[in-house]
Design brief:
mainly alpha, 2 helices
């Protein structure tokens, strides 16, 4: 996605690509990533690794907005 759209998947919540609300989707993933690894609803380590392979800053520590 990042290469296809010449950007980062660290998109703000209002971002969309082709009508798909990519920003909302990523915000949900970022919220899951903030949970402790074994907590219910936490992002799976393999999924985090896949996102970091696309863009290491997909879930930065600073505000996306």
């Amino acid at each position: 996605m990042a290469a296809e759209h010449s950007g980062s998947p660290a998109a703000p919540m209002q971002a969309s690509i082709g009508g798909y609300p990519i920003g909302t989707w990523l915000a949900s993933l970022r919220a899951q990533a903030e949970l402790p690894e074994r907590e219910k609803g936490a992002l799976e380590p393999a999924r985090r690794a896949a996102l970091e392979a696309i863009d290491p800053w997909w879930a930065p520590a600073w505000p996306i907005a």
